[in-house]
Each structure stands twice: as structure tokens, then as C-alpha cells.
Specification:
single chain; alpha/beta; Rossmann fold; 5-stranded mixed beta barrel; 7 helices; binds hypoxanthine
């Protein structure tokens, strides 16, 4: 019997993804072009990898791009699966555990997000320092051993955050910091939900990343996450988010994310 991670590893090997990697990098909506940074890429469609996401959200590719960026071997996931696609908060479990089996110790997550701060406008990048998950959904519900009780202090690794801020300075990219509240989606938030979120201390909202962080922390990965702001939260500063806006702003502002990550992987 092969377990899901072994099955994924076997498929990746057949497609030429071999050896170990230093970093995992998950690219969110509209951020697919960041994978152009990868030198000598080996590309594998998720459809060929057991346990990797099969659904499609427009604005997402669905493939692994494995290779080198700067001084690092990076396993890039161009596109992710979301809870709202199938109602499974652990949908990214096999990909994340496969990364660990490939030797990865550090995971960088990116996403498109709404901003709750006027001075963090569409196009801005924000490093996630912490999150709020009051959805009642958690990818570890049903795990029956003590590994489910994952500590979440410094879930967004301070050393990785420091290195990303350093890279942003060198690359002359402004990188803000924020607290991300996860909404399961797929409908956008109501203006009342956004006002509540702001009162609770969130500065960013989005529909991804948080389940991945929880899954990754459970198995000891160090995690960092960067949001690209594509809109103001519903009802704030004229914000009326739509998927079309998310895709178009992300495509534009993706160049900043690219510059930041290129510097990050080069300075290591
Ligand atoms: N809300 C939730 N998810 C999002 C948003 C938003 O405003 N923008 C991009 N993804």
C-alpha cells in the first residue's frame, strides 16, 4: 500500500522532479507569473500528481514548477486549492506533506487579499504577521492524535519575516505588515462582516492560506505568507470586491511580488 505522499512523490519522480528542495512556494490568484523566476524548471500538471488539487479557479494555473531561484531549490505550486471548492479544509494536506518529504523546511505562501486599511491600497504587498480564524472550520478536525493541538504563536516565522523584509528593502519594494482574517468564501464578505473584522483587529481578508498554515505548522514547516492587496474590503473606501478585479490587479502588481521573491531567494 502506498500512502498519498508516496504516490505523489512517485509521480513527481516520473516527471523528473528529483532530489531535495529548500523552499516551497505557493502562488495565489493572479500570481502565477512569479513562476517565471524558476531556472531550469521541471513542470508537472497537478492532474498528473495523485493527491494534488484537481479543481480549477480562473486566475490559477494548476501545476508544479520545480527548479532554482537565486541560490535556492524551490518547489513552486502555481495555483492552490481552496476550502470553498469542495468543502475540505485539508485539501492542501498532501501537497504540503509532499513538500516535507522533498526535504523542504520553509514554506512561503502568497495570496490575493482585501485590505481594511486606507493606506494599504490595491497593489500593495503586506506580510502576514498573524491570522484570525473564527470560521469554525479547521483542517485538523478529525485528526485523532495529539499532533492536532498545534501551537499557533509565531506561526508566521519571525526569522523568515525578517529575511523577507530585508529582501523587500533591497529590492525597493514596500512591504507592509498585517493580520489576515480567513473567510471561507466563496461569496465575498458583506460590509457588516468587514466592519466586524476591522474591529477585531484584522487588516487583511481572504479565502485561502490559513488552512495551509495550520497544516504546515502541524508538521513543523516554518511558514511565511505575503498578501497582495487587490481591493479594499467590501464597503470600505468604495471597496466592492469582485473576482475580475482580483485577477486584474494581481496581474499588474505581481511584478512587485516577483521582485521581492527574486531578491529573497537570491540573498539567502
Ligand atoms: N475578500 C476575500 N477574499 C479576497 C478579497 C476580499 O476582499 N480580495 C481578494 N481575495
Amino acid at each position: 500500500m502506498t500512502n498519498p505522499v508516496q504516490a505523489a512523490l512517485m509521480a513527481l519522480k516520473e516527471w523528473g522532479v528529483d532530489g531535495t528542495f529548500d523552499y516551497g512556494l505557493v502562488l495565489g490568484t493572479g500570481l502565477g507569473p512569479v513562476a517565471d523566476l524558476v531556472h531550469n524548471p521541471v513542470i508537472v500538471p497537478y492532474a498528473q500528481i495523485p493527491g494534488f488539487p484537481k479543481g480549477q479557479v480562473s486566475g490559477h494555473s494548476a501545476r508544479v514548477v520545480a527548479g532554482t531561484i537565486g541560490n535556492s531549490r524551490v518547489f513552486v505550486m502555481q495555483g492552490r486549492a481552496h476550502y470553498y471548492e469542495h468543502g475540505d479544509p485539508a485539501i492542501m494536506r498532501t501537497p504540503i506533506e509532499t513538500m516535507v518529504a522533498l526535504g523542504i523546511k520553509n514554506l512561503i505562501l502568497t495570496n490575493a487579499a482585501g485590505s481594511l486599511l486606507e493606506d494599504v491600497p490595491p497593489g500593495a504587498l503586506s506580510l502576514i504577521t498573524d491570522h484570525i480564524n473564527l470560521s469554525g472550520v479547521n483542517p485538523l478536525i478529525g485528526v485523532s492524535d495529539d499532533s492536532r493541538f498545534v501551537p499557533m504563536v509565531d506561526a508566521y516565522d519571525p526569522a523568515l519575516r525578517k529575511a523577507l523584509k530585508q529582501a523587500a528593502m533591497t529590492a525597493q519594494v514596500i512591504l507592509r505588515e498585517g493580520v489576515y482574517q480567513w473567510f471561507p468564501g466563496p461569496s465575498f464578505e458583506t460590509p457588516a462582516e468587514i466592519r466586524a473584522s476591522k474591529m477585531l483587529g484584522a487588516t487583511l481578508v481572504g479565502m485561502s492560506t490559513v488552512p495551509e498554515v495550520i497544516l504546515a505548522r502541524r508538521i513543523g514547516l516554518r511558514v511565511a505568507a505575503i498578501s497582495m492587496v487587490t481591493n479594499y474590503g467590501a464597503g470600505l473606501f468604495g471597496g466592492a470586491p469582485s473576482h475580475a478585479e482580483t485577477k486584474s490587479v494581481a496581474a499588474e502588481a505581481g511584478e512587485k511580488m516577483k521582485a521581492l521573491l527574486e531578491q529573497f531567494f537570491t540573498q539567502l
